[in-house]
């Protein structure tokens, strides 16, 4: 639900009409490529034990092709439940993360390059970071809290998106041509689907249908609402009118920010995380992009990068053992150290993957193809 059709529609409505199909195709490709790679090696690299020299950074290949995973095995994080359930649940995180990155290079990357990028990035960047945070690696061992993917998914995707935007350069006509969204109704439907799916992400990360899951679900809804209000107020003051796109972006920004905190904070903490995240994401998506003049097409960094960083840091501030005993010892400092590790690996890995793509498939479509639109030039299809 979150990637297809949620994110596909959310992004699809935000690009120009000539690129709607291409953006949806990228979400579909992320689903297909990552699902297969998760089975082949991604799950093992993420949650398997690695060789002694690199175990804190990446897992091994003992569970490649799900070797040893049967209908009777259970994962340690879900005692009493089939390991295949854990494999499936974690696969959804792995799928949506590269699909989020596509928002940064929308309307100008070759489809062949995006497919290769998804594949290499999953193995080189996503799986190692997942292992470092959730699979027994060094970040998780520090006591860094990430309940449902603030660092693994959102900071990771946001930082990579920024690297992509800088590496590809701006779209032809950026800052000059009208690049208004083609259909915000699509984006609104996509946001609604993302919201429902996000409850599954965050509450499901409790590993059971219990009180902790209930707290995570409510915190998710509350943070999304308060962030939407925070974004709307700032936009209303600056632009003299609130926009639907702003409300939708605020909702997503709140969902991003509460992701690492959902199972560690009480509702008051969730409220303040959302209220802070809304204006912070607005600043990242509007002011920062305007000041630095980079073209993050659909604000992958502005919303997911900034929202993920803010949420992760505030998790250290608002986490309470009254909600989750694992919150004991949580500090903003620990969260910051973990974030620095994720940012460094993500940025370096993204640059490496982009370099490989540039030397093989090439990265950008031609100027003529970009002007005509990626729907027709990359897929031979168009919305009439």
Could you characterize what this model shows?
With 384 residues, the chain is mainly α. It has one domain (2-379): Orthogonal Bundle (Ammonium transporter fold), CATH 1.10.3430. The protein contains 14 helices and no strands. The protein has helices at 2-12, 20-47, 83-105, 111-134, 138-141, 150-168, 184-204, 211-239, 244-258, 267-292, 300-318, 332-360, 367-372, 374-379. Helix 2 (20-47) packs across helix 3 and helix 8 crosses helix 10 (267-292). The mean pLDDT is 97. Residues 2-382 form the Ammonium transporter AmtB-like domain. This is Ammonium transporter.
Short descriptors:
single chain, 384 residues, mainly alpha, Ammonium transporter fold, transmembrane helix
- The total number of structural domains is 1
- The global form is globular
What structural class do helix, strand and pairing data support? mainly alpha
CATH architecture: Orthogonal Bundle
Instruction: Please tally the helical runs, counting DSSP H or I stretches of 4 or more residues.
Output: 14
Intertermini distance? 26 Å
Q: Which CATH class?
A: Mainly Alpha
**What string, H for helix and E for strand, traces the elements in order?**
HHHHHHHHHHHHHH
CATH fourth-tier homologous superfamily: Ammonium transporter AmtB like domains
Mean pLDDT: 97
Helix content: 55-70%
Spans where pLDDT lies below 50 across 5 or more residues: none
Number of strands: 0
Rg over CA atoms: 20 Å
Could you please say which CATH topology applies here? Ammonium transporter fold
**Biggest sheet: strands, sense, closure?**
none
Q: What proportion of the residues form beta strands (DSSP E)?
A: under 5%
């Amino acid at each position: 639900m979150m990637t297809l059709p949620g994110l596909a529609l959310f992004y699809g409505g935000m690009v120009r009409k000539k690129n709607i199909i291409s953006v949806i195709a990228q979400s579909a490709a992320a689903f297909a490529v990552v699902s297969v790679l998760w089975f082949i090696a991604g799950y093992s690299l993420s949650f398997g034990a690695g060789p002694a020299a690199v175990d804190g950074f990446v897992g091994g290949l003992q569970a490649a092709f799900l070797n040893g995973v049967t209908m009777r095995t259970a994962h340690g994080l879900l005692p009493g439940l089939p390991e295949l359930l854990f494999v499936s649940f974690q696969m959804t995180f792995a799928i949506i993360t590269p699909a989020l990155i596509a928002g940064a290079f929308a309307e100008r990357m070759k489809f062949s390059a995006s497919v290769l990028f998804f594949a290499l990035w999953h193995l080189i960047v996503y799986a190692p970071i997942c292992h470092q945070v959730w699979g027994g690696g060094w970040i998780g061992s520090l006591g860094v809290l990430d309940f449902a993917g603030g660092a693994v998914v959102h900071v990771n995707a946001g930082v990579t998106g920024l690297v992509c935007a800088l590496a590809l350069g701006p779209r032809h006509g950026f800052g000059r041509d009208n690049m208004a969204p083609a259909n915000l109704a699509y984006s609104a439907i996509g946001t609604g689907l993302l919201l429902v799916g996000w409850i599954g992400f965050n509450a499901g990360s409790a590993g059971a249908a219990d009180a902790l899951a209930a707290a995570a679900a409510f915190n998710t809804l509350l943070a999304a609402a308060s962030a939407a209000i925070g974004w709307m107020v700032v936009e209303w003051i600056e632009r003299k009118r609130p926009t639907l796109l702003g409300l939708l972006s605020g909702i997503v920004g709140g969902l991003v920010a509460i992701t690492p905190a959902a199972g560690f904070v009480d509702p008051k903490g969730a409220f303040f995380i959302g209220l802070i995240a809304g204006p912070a994401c607005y600043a990242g998506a509007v002011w920062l992009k305007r000041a630095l003049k980079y073209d993050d097409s659909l604000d992958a960094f502005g919303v997911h990068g900034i929202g993920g960083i803010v949420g992760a840091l505030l998790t250290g501030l608002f986490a309470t053992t009254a909600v989750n005993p694992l919150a004991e010892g949580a500090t903003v400092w620990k969260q910051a150290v973990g974030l620095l590790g994720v940012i460094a690996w993500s940025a370096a890995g993204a640059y490496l993957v982009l370099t490989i793509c540039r030397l093989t498939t090439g990265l950008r479509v031609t100027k003529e193809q970009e002007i005509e639109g990626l729907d027709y030039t990359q897929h031979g299809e168009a919305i009439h």
